[in-house]
Amino acid sequence: MAATERSDENLRLRTTLAGIAPGTPLRAGLERILRGRTGGLLVLGSDRTIDAISTGGFTLDVPFSDTMLRELAKMDGAIILDKDASRILRAAVHLMPDPSIPSEETGTRHRTADRVARQTGYPVISVSRSMQTIAAYVGETRYVLEDSGQILARANQALATLERYKMRLDEVSSTLSALEIEDLVTVRDVASVAQRLEMVARIASEIEGYVLELGNDGRLLSLQLDELVTGVDLERELVIRDYQPAGRKARLTEDVLADLEALSPTDLVDVAAIARALELGPSEHLDAAITPRGYRLLARVPRLPGTVVDRLVEHFGSLQKLLSAGIDDLQTVDGVGELRARSVREGLSRLAESSILERYV
User: Which segment of the chain is annotated as a signal peptide (predicted)?
Assistant: First the structure.
């Protein structure tokens, strides 16, 4: 499966999990089916392909309710809902997907759900009477829902890990700022910060999946996550923009981020692999000096528009030239008047002082 297809399927899976999370009407209906021990098969969507593989049953087209879903599940056959699970379209439907579609499922209901999901592209939900489980089939993916307590336990463990990684990220980020001001940055320093940023982003993405699956039960977890990762995405972009190699056609920031996201867990702990993904040079050049453009520090100057930041970086070319620029020099940049020039000068001076103090005191 291509990377784009995997990304699309992952997005559809996350959307489906959000729609059947605790607190949603559909999840309430599924829980009723579980308690009733009847089992069920639901298709979330309808079109000509669904019609072509459906026989029997009867048309309803009525508003969704969890109690009605429970009663309809008592009958044999599948229940067809619309994409939003806001209406029950048909019930007691016999589904006949293409038997040549490969499936590793053994039970009749699960095998049908797997093949229908692969053939139609619509999410299919199977409720097992014997196993007392709910499984969502999206494309080629089968995802078994777990009890909220188990998910919450894993989520809290991941959150504790995220807190530790975020503390380490703050440390290496502060060190990089001090080194930038002193013009002592090496490729290793930049790669270490990019590495920690990617680690934090991956753990945060995992927790976001838990939040989706927990629904109402994940509200507190969501608030804690937002507090920990606020600013991380921006920091990732600024590091890339600060250290993109000059003298060649610059890659888009999104492309560099995609290369970092594509690194395996093994490569992620290798600073040299991070440096290669950033195109900062081979592993033997990790201790080579490198100069920032100034995006990271300028982003910390209060009330400084992004367009002005771009003009300042384009005009001066490096952070060291920005730090040595006087108010008159700054005013030569389009859009920088005397007040803004003073604000930039004072803001950079304060940042320089605080970064040096944090490092050496």
Answer: none
